[in-house]
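Why do we bother with holo predictions? Because pocket geometry can differ from the apo form. Keep that in mind while you read this record for iron/sulfur cluster.
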Amino acid sequence: MTIIRQQDFIDSIEDALQFISYYHPLDYVKAVEKAYDKEQSQAAKDAMAQILINSRMSAEGKRPICQDTGIVTCFVKIGMQVQWDKTDMTVQEMVDEGTRRAYLNADNPLRASIVADPAGTRKNTKDNTPAVVHIDMVAGDKIEVMIAAKGGGSENKSKMVMLNPSDDIADWVVKTLPTMGAGWCPPGMLGIGIGGTAEKAAVLAKESLMDPVDIHELIERGPETTEEKLRVDIFNKVNALGIGAQGLGGLTTVVDIKIKSLPTHAASKPIAMIPNCAATRHAHFYLDGSGPAELKAPKLEDWPQVTWELSKDTRRVNMDELTKEDILDWKVGETVLLSGKMLTGRDAAHKRIQTMFENGEGLPEGVDLTNKFIYYVGPVDAIGDEAVGPAGPTTATRMDKFTDMMLEKTGIIGTIGKAERGPATVQSIAKHKSVYLMAVGGAAYLVSKAIKKAKVVAFEDLGMEAIYEFEVEDMPVTVAVDSSGANAHETGPAIWKAKIEEIDQALSK
Ligand code: SF4
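The structure, written out:
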């Protein structure tokens, strides 16, 4: 019988969550480095350069890789020969205690993103609890823990289907992936759960994402089992779609495909697919009664020395002097360096602004959006001399339902976020001669270095969803939709899908 101390378990959860907030798993870093080296699409290469630079900076500064520090998801496998030294807390309560301490850590506070009463008031619980905990009783005298901090943008793109037994799984993945857009911040991984029942397939998909990136080793030695063959098949077919990093078109959309399966009913083929994003964050440890887990910090030399060179004709603009006319010649795909003042807002702020207009009220006091850009972001709290903590973009697609109203009524000239806009929003952007700019999802700490000042100007009660005024200097963005309605998330993947077909044909000759 092994005795596990409650305190060791809680300390280990806390340490692991802090650790993964700033250290990417090295296997993911190496996989993105490989993808970066072979990438031929400049837009995708630039995005991966920012992801790799951000990753190294986070490791060095011990600050979150992404402003969305995730929902804690924890698999706990408890050996049947394990006993706890205290029984006044459940495993769920112990994981929650570790989560609470990690997210409220004064040296590296993490963003609290969990809301209670999800169908109603959606009130932030303020400490990122509760965690999602999956408990298994297994053979042995140890406790195994796999813990992740899963970003909302990638979790939102999860898919589930009950296929017919004769249906082809790879076909379904290839048909479904383009419908997921770029809000899951590729390049990442797809976790696929097959079999069991509907809910079990989803848990299998999530658990598969805890495995290391190893598809290239698998391809080298040759797949043998059904699952291995399916992994390689899906990996090749998905990358041939040309979606690329951040959905801008390119050679690498996924760096691995993970699969877990279980026997299922003869009439069923349950499939769940959950993507993991550029902020892939997970840790794996065992407790054997000898004390808390010790996670080995990676060495900074393990990160590639990637630099990101701006082309000499990169456009530099001062947002404090911009007018609608100035943005008319910004072209889709162009890199722009923004300086000056912008305002922020995401889901809750947009909803409140909409309600205020519906009630005949204007914008809140102190908010003037005339000729301003609105940046979709919910930053991490600042520490030390930071103006703001990591502050990367959130998925713009969620703001589509408000964008026409914002362009029509508030005087904004453009929006900044990540991922694609829907067709109606692209039309509205063109109609209002506006632009949509894209920052790289998963490069939040790097982006925050361009933010020199930050202050809350409205809706303080919304916490990270409040409206801030940011003063930025040379914040890099890409024109993703220009004032004519040209859309990088449509043209980029289409061009690269065709190019990949050409490359494959040339190679097969
Ligand atoms: S990388 Fe993208 S999807 Fe992942 S946590 Fe960050 S913003 Fe969310």
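The two ends are 63 Å apart (CA to CA).
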